[in-house]
Amino acid sequence: MASSTRLQELIALGQSPWLDYIRKDMLHNGELQQQIAQGLCGVTSNPSIFENAIAKSELYKEDIQQLAQSGATSIDIYDSLVKADISLAADSLRPVYDASKGADGYVSLEVPPDLCDDHERTVAEAKRLWQWIDKPNLMIKVPATSQGLLAIEELIGEGIPINVTLLFTMNDYRQVASAYLRGLERRAASGQELHSVASVASIFVSRLDTAIEGLAAEKDVADLIGKVAVANSRAIYREFSRMFSSHRFAKLQALGAHVQRPLWASTGTKNQALSDVLYINELIGPNTVNTMPPATLAAFLDHGVAKLEVDQHASEDVGVLAQCEKAGIDIESLGQELKQKGLVQFKDSFTHLMAAIEEAMAKHS
């Protein structure tokens, strides 16, 4: 009998390992299937991932040519390329989705980032993508902006699986979890079933530590490097446990509702002085997801340690966050700055991607 992989050990501890990456070649050469066999449970994408895949490789040039020759516009071409990749990934993960009865096996696709300040357009685009891709294991990604929160509530009420992205702080988390609960309550009030509604709340981890590093000399907090993001994420996990053990959620759970799992995103270690599996090892626990970039996934498979950690260090975490506050580091304000930078990054990636498609079209017009 074959020994289990470290990803399968994560699953046994209640955490679902997902891959934060998608590209055409991995969908055709057996790479994704191999990772699924090792225990991979899902795939996430974002505008930056698609920019790197489509604009910074030669893999899509022929497809772009053929679509351009057929009269497709640049946005038509983008839609076609993305639909092909997302659909193949969803089909590969469908057995995981079926075996888990809809708890796992998802592939995430983000609404265009220029819609983040308009909840009505976000809702319309999310519905379009959901109907167009037409896969039950598709998750639509919506940023946790003020308008995004309105969209999340409405989309959950419609029964569309949602990956809420770009969370950084406790306040972000509480607002997102509350929007999810309101969406479930709206759905229940209209007499619709809840058991098929899935959602994750994506907390971005390493970017917070990178920001803390930039403040280390100014604030004299060098001893906090590599600790704040983990402590912040664990505190959010404790809030998740509190909110989803409440009487309010119990009523929804009795109707078939699932918890909205915290998803640890941005888990590649940026600081080479820190462990390359830091944001995996330290955040393992029940009802969580960790979406890993390829290098981090490979590192965890090689030398990660699958052990319950996320709810084991409350006093230590409180101390780290208190030290931040004492040093004058406002994690809430820092998180909102990081969210805005993330939105700009995704908007820029989408703009660069569309420009690259138009350039490829022009070469073959």
Features:
alpha/beta, globular, TIM Barrel, 365 residues, eight-stranded parallel β-barrel, 16 helices, single chain
Secondary-structure topology with pairs:
Elements: H1 6-12, E1 15-20, H2 24-28, H3 31-38, E2 42-44, H4 47-55, H5 61-69, H6 74-99, E3 106-110, H7 119-133, E4 138-143, H8 146-157, E5 162-167, H9 170-189, E6 199-204, H10 206-219, H11 228-243, H12 247-253, E7 261-265, H13 278-281, E8 288-292, H14 294-303, H15 314-326, H16 331-363
Parallel strand pairs: 1-2, 1-8, 2-3, 3-4, 4-5, 5-6, 6-7, 7-8
Helix pairs in contact: 4-16, 5-6, 6-16, 7-8, 8-9, 9-11, 11-15
Walk me through the structure.
With 365 residues, this protein is α/β, with parallel strands linked by helices. It has one domain (6-357): TIM Barrel (Alpha-Beta Barrel). The chain is built from 16 helices and 8 strands. The chain has helices at residues 6-12, 24-28, 31-38, 47-55, 61-69, 74-99, 119-133, 146-157, 170-189, 206-219, 228-243, 247-253, 278-281, 294-303, 314-326, 331-363, and strands at residues 15-20, 42-44, 106-110, 138-143, 162-167, 199-204, 261-265, 288-292. α6 packs across α16 (331-363) and α9 (170-189) runs parallel beside α11. The radius of gyration is 20 Å and the shape is globular. The mean pLDDT is 95.
